[in-house]
Amino acid sequence: MRKLADGVWQLGGFPPNAINIYLVEDVLVDAGSRHARRRILRELGTTSLRAHVLTHAHPDHQGSSHFVCNHYGVPLWVGEGDHDAAERPELIVERQPDHPLNRMSYRHWAGPGHKVDRVLREGDEVAGFRVLHVPGHSAGHIALWREDDRVLILGDVVNNIDTLTGIPGLHEPKAFFTPDPAANRRSARRLGELEPRLVLFGHGAPLRDTAKFVAFCSSLA
């Protein structure tokens, strides 16, 4: 694991920064696809967990959630609007645009559903971070914001890599992965207004260039 800020680590993976998983104090944020189990076990080692949080219930984030919660004996916390899909993953593909990549990712990456123990809402606290409701890429998408050092964990509201080509750079999530692109742009503009010093993405490398992130988000009409 790589330490990125006080109490915040990024789990390693291959390719690096492709599908990110974070540890915030003793809370695991996202869990990759269902093939990420060994990676999670290897990276966490003897680390104890208190809870597991999803930024959103998509196959590349919830795939190993059931395993994590069972193996570590921890509760699952998911944003309001995605909690039912975390429990019943068949809802994921129903809610995404009808596109072959969504059907493929569901077949190959989605994991079993798992009972949600805590539904997260705007303003809730998770390991020193405040929950922000940022819908668009999914109905119940959340971000985590720590104001004292301006660290933002934003899931897939913005990507720092082209998720098809692997080329680094700031991008909106692909429209065919996103049920409501207009709402997602509003969420991105809201996050840009926070002027974070460190941005941690679901896909792509961490970003410490505040001006670049703010300019990108404000450009989304």
Task: For the structure shown, list the relevant keywords.
221 residues, alpha/beta, 28% helix, 22% strand, seven-stranded mixed sheet
Please characterize this protein's 3D structure.
- This protein is globular.
- The strands form three sheets. Strands 1-2-3-4-5-6-7 form a seven-stranded mixed beta sheet, with helices on one face.
- It has helices at 37-44, 59-62, 65-72, 83-87, 90-95, 100-109, 181-192, 210-218, and strands at 2-5, 8-10, 22-24, 27-29, 51-54, 76-79, 118-120, 125-126, 129-133, 142-146, 151-153, 159-161, 168-171, 198-200.
- With 221 residues, it is α/β, with parallel strands linked by helices.
- Helices cover 28% and strands 22% of the residues.
- The mean pLDDT is 97.
- Helix 7 runs antiparallel to helix 8.
- It is built from eight helices and 14 strands.
Broad structural category: alpha/beta
Summarize model confidence as the mean pLDDT. Answer: 97
Give the low-pLDDT segments.
Answer: none
Q: Which overall shape is indicated by the principal axes computed on the Cα atoms?
A: globular
Percent in helix = 25-40%
H-E order = EEEEHEHHEHHHEEEEEEEHEH
Spatial strand arrangement across the major sheet: 1-2-3-4-5-6-7
Task: Write the topology of this structure.
Layout (H helix, E strand, L loop, with lengths): L1 E4 L2 E3 L11 E3 L2 E3 L7 H8 L6 E4 L4 H4 L2 H8 L3 E4 L3 H5 L2 H6 L4 H10 L8 E3 L4 E2 L2 E5 L8 E5 L4 E3 L5 E3 L6 E4 L9 H12 L5 E3 L9 H9 L3
Parallel strand pairs: 4-5, 5-6, 6-7, 11-14
Antiparallel strand pairs: 1-2, 2-3, 3-4, 8-9, 9-10, 10-11, 12-13
